[in-house]
Amino acid sequence: MLLIMAPACTAKSDARLFVLFLCLTIHTGIAVATIQGYIGDIDMTCPSVCRCDEDFIYCNDRGLSSIPSLPPSASVLYLQNNHINNPGLPTSLERQLSVRVVYLYDNELDEFPIHLPPSVRELHLQDNNIRTIPRSTLARMPLLEKLHLDDNSISTVSIEDQAFADNPRLRLLFLSRNHLSSIPSGLPASLEELRLDDNRISTIPTHAFRGLNSLRCLVLDGNLLANQRIADDTFSRLSNLTELSLVRNSLQTPPVNLPSAHLQRLSLQENALTHMPRGSLDGMHRLQRLDLSGNNLTTLPRGLFKDLDSLGQLLVRGNPWHCGCNLRWLYDWLRARGNTITVRGLTCHGPDRVRDMALIDLGSEMEECEVVRLTGNKDKGAVGGGESSTTNAPPQGSLFTLRSKRPGFGFPDSGLDYTLSSSGVGKSLALNVKPLSHNSIRVTWSAAQPSSSFRLSWLRQGTGNAMESITETLVRGDRQEYLLTSLQPRSSYIICMVPLSVTSESKVAMSGDADTDESLVCAKAETSDLSSIEEEDNEESQHITVLPLAGIIGGATATVSLALIFGVFCWYGHRTGHLCSRDHYTRSSSRKSKTYDDYIESGTKKDNTILEIRGPGFQMTPMPACQPMQPKPLREDYIIHTIFPSNGTGVYKGSNHVSNAGHGTNRGYREGGIPDIDYCYT
């Protein structure tokens, strides 16, 4: 029986052991899985100082000085508005291969940050103090497409040569509000948008935008650009440009050879535009927005907008528009466009008859121009042509040179025997020119008959018989003077003028030429040398400065002489005793006999409590008071009197004690039979 039961017990024990082993195995697996899950949770934990939304990590505005540990799945890092500096970027950041966008603007970075992940495609570093752009650092981010470096301290020389050569995907580069003095070199050909506004760029050479055939947006606002410092074919290379902004510069005309094929937005506001040359907007069939606000334009030439088929916005506010018959073509063009175009700021500044009126509202006034053109009656000049203005300053000459194979009228042949003088007289016009400075000439004229306008042309004579390009402009008929500026020093200019009637203007507009040789009047003037002008100015300034200097020396001499005479007079008076300051007082020991009150002179209320003597003291009187027969001494000699209080309790003081009392003349009362002894002291 016992032998039968033993095998059964052994079998049960084995079963229990197997079950126990199985349970231990299951528990061990669960523990391992739990530990692994906990470790995985630790790896995916969001930093305690940040907020995470899937792969977006928000650590901005936390006052951080360094970047905390980030989960490996992070793709967009918001780290702006902190105190992160260059040492605050850990080397572990390079292993965050999921990061695509990094916002590090408004921090305390002094150098271009290193240790950024190579997977970054968009980097925001504006509002720091970055000074250099090294090529080696940018080479670590070959996938970079957008780089924002606005509001830093980057200069042209601090950008390493070929700094962007290893960034073939870079499409957007912002360098606004830095210290650039020229266009950075070595820009990648993949660039589509370039912003360089509010820098110190003054010159743009021909090769500045070479190779940037993909560039579509170029912003150069707030620089120091002028027409003379922009190469003629600078912008013509940008064949795919759709937006060009040149706001807040010093342009007097639009740059020549602007890209016209794809341009959609052109911003030229807040410059010094005085003239829009005919043909400067030719070929811009896709232009949608044109901004000419804040300039000095008074008119626009006929045919300026002939190719602007897609123009939807025309912004021209802030210009002194003269709404005469010269703008009749623009009035007709706007009426033909109707509601397809939005115009802002085309308000008349003159003549007074239509001041503050919109051009589009001048229907009846513009009809007058049509009547004059058809009937050929007496020309009305401009709208309200009877109101001539001769007090206005002469308009400034344009810097733009109109190059044409056949100008409106010919100039006299420089090879002829006769020579032109500073004045010319024709059948209907008398012309006079006068150089004012090394770069300006004043032109005045007098017409025998009223004219709607005058065509003024001038050109500079080159070496020998060579002639340069012709510059011409239309002048209103109510003017009698014009100022040519920005001319070349020490140069000869031929200046011609011809009066135009309304009919002749129409011919010129239609055919580009007119038979005006009979009315043509020309004169010649020569600008002075810049050095001679400076010498004359220096001589005049020397003459001007010599006169005040002589006056100052003479005045100083007279003042010193008067002071010496007055001093001698006072000294003599002091010797004779007539001007001594003490003579303001009468020579008396009694206070009642004093005729001048020093308290009243100083504006101070007299305090009589000083007369209530409560202890022994002294009184000082001038020496002549006690010895009138002696001559007045040269030194200040005084007599010291002992003063006792009225109750007789004072003690007599010895004569060796000197008091610093003022000039008071009152005595105290002395009682008790003590003799009054005067002690003279100097």
Automatic annotation (TrEMBL):
It is a single-pass membrane protein. GO terms for cellular component: extracellular space; plasma membrane. It comes from the Eukaryota. InterPro entries: Cys-rich_flank_reg_C, FN3_dom, FN3_sf, Ig-like_fold, Leu-rich_rpt, Leu-rich_rpt_typical-subtyp, LRR_dom_sf, SLRP. SMART domains: LRR_BAC, LRR_TYP, LRRCT. Its main location: membrane. The chain crosses the membrane at residues 546-572. Pfam families: LRR_8. This is Fibronectin leucine rich transmembrane protein 1. Gene3D superfamilies: Immunoglobulins, Ribonuclease Inhibitor. Residues 427-519 form the Fibronectin type-III domain. It comes from Cyprinodon variegatus. It is found in: Cell membrane; Membrane. PANTHER family: AGAP008170-PA, LEUCINE-RICH REPEAT TRANSMEMBRANE PROTEIN FLRT1. The keyword Transmembrane helix applies. Keywords: Cell membrane, Disulfide bond, Leucine-rich repeat, Membrane, Repeat, Signal, Transmembrane, Transmembrane helix.
